[in-house]
Write a structure and sequence with these properties.
Catalyzes the first step in hexosamine metabolism, converting fructose-6P into glucosamine-6P using glutamine as a nitrogen source. It comes from Dokdonella soli. Keywords: Aminotransferase, Cytoplasm, Glutamine amidotransferase, Repeat, Transferase. The protein has 19 helices and 27 strands. The protein is of the alpha/beta class and 610 residues long. It is globular and about 80 Å long. 34% of the residues lie in helices and 23% in strands. Bound molecules: 6-O-phosphono-alpha-D-glucopyranose (G6P). 6-O-phosphono-alpha-D-glucopyranose (G6P) binds next to α9.
Length: 610
Amino acid sequence: MCGIVAATAQRDVVPLLIAGLKALEYRGYDSAGISVLEDGKLARVRAAGKVRELEALYDAHPVAGVTGIAHTRWATHGVPNTINAHPHVSSDRVAVVHNGIIENHVELREELKAHGYRFESETDTEVIAHLVDHALSRGADLRGAVLSATRRLHGAYAIAVLSRDQPGQIVGARRGSPLVAGLGDGEHFLGSDVQALIKQTSRFIYLEEGDIVEISREDLAIFNADGEPVERPVRTSELSADAVERGEYRHYMLKEIFEQPRAIADTLEGRISENRILPNIFGVNADALLSRVKHVQIVACGTSYHAGLVARYWLEGLVGLPCSVEVASEYRYRHVVVPEGTLFLAVSQSGETADTLAALREGKRHGYLGSLTICNVPESSLVRESDLVLMTRAGPEIGVASTKAFTTQLAALALLVFELARLNGIEPARYSRLVAELATLPRVVGEVLKLDPEIAALAERFVPKHHALFLGRGVHYPVALEGALKLKEISYIHAEAYPAGELKHGPLALVDEDMPVITVAPNNQLLEKLKSNMEEVRARGGELFVFADTDAPVAQSGSRGAVLKIASGGNLIAPAVFTVPLQLLAYHVAVLRGTDVDQPRNLAKSVTVE
Ligand code: G6P
């Protein structure tokens, strides 16, 4: 993962580099570093830990310069200490920041050692610095040196390179990892994403695979992998600078949980009207493809995978289309058999998740009918490489634990399901009822958010726990999976989710008075079955915390555990609605346990490495 930001300007760029790194911390926060050209020399500041550690070091020992590169790291090769922090340098002449993984770094390291280069870090990145330096010492200019270095690299990279010999210039390159160029007024920037630079400019160029970009204060030029000049369109980002501010909220995660009514409403806006889906929301001529779909293969990771699991119940239950769902890291390395007429459906908040992107590329070789991506980031790699796209409009999600991205994905997936239902001849009255129910989702989620104080109080009972079980049935099994994921990733309480009917095949052995069992109990056709499963837990002394539909006949039993009533608003939207209290529960437990809610240990938001 890792975040890159670089700038060349007439002003001191260090403050904007630090601000850019803070906006990129969602990509990793193991260490951070900056390199600028100061009085003709490469100055470097690096610190283990978060960007604020780097900032403290910089405040104590300021550096300044008009050209610089910066990095926030999610460690892959080498522990997260200062020596392994980027930028990596070679011969006091070249500094490099890198996002990605260089797979042949061991061979390159040996080769460079034979040329007399000494390595100070354990990273794969340091080979890039030495390769560039080696090419420079043979007479290449910076761009030529970067081109020849990148030709030697196997794996994925986005890089920004600075050389003492060409002050005022930065060369960037990408293959497999994202990089954008920002166009300012007499200044230019590079960044892993638009968010890093939105305070400086709203005009961007999204670099394509294999591109090399050369920026100076006045000029920007792009070259393809063969070194030939190419033109790439300039786009204006609609992201507002304050979309990435935390505002009055204590954490981004809480802000994002509370933004869900707005985010879902934005995702539905202009797409449904008078209880029907408006034409062409998947693009002009999308019907031609969608009407031929006989099977859907969903591929995703993490929370997005859970959204895909929900969609399977909808697709099979409402449309009658067979659907398979798989995590991308498994799918991409498996021999897949693709039934005729299969739509490849990628679900991703970032649009840059390496495994999902690789799965899409791999999928293209398997004779799918076509591909569709549901995504939150315009111009991301998945969006650009898919045949059809439906954007969620959640706005930037900064908290590493995904919240509004999930519920907006469900809203977008529901739109797709309805469209496929229409094309497959769903009964019109049923179709209208479903669309009308979806339209109520923002309001219903808004109501559930009012339970926040109650859930905060409930959270206190989880603070001393070490483990938790989440149970759900049917379409609410993925909701339980998502609840368990939220709790484990931010509170570090070990949490697992099971389909409730599977309890007696193993996990019941874990149930005792120390094991809280969280159950999602909507008032649907599986409620009676679920209640039997809950009795199995009670009989073993387990403590049940039930999130039950307002009209579900589920009552508190004894003084242990709790029943919280949720107005789910209907079977279709219930998975999204029931997710919200589980998000709040995880959030409050984490706050009470004093963890770093927005940046939990060892994780990152955008996983652009395998
Ligand atoms: C990381 C994030 C998760 C996210 C997953 C997939 O693990 O921490 O929140 O669900 O990546 O990311 P994507 O951007 O593809 O949805």
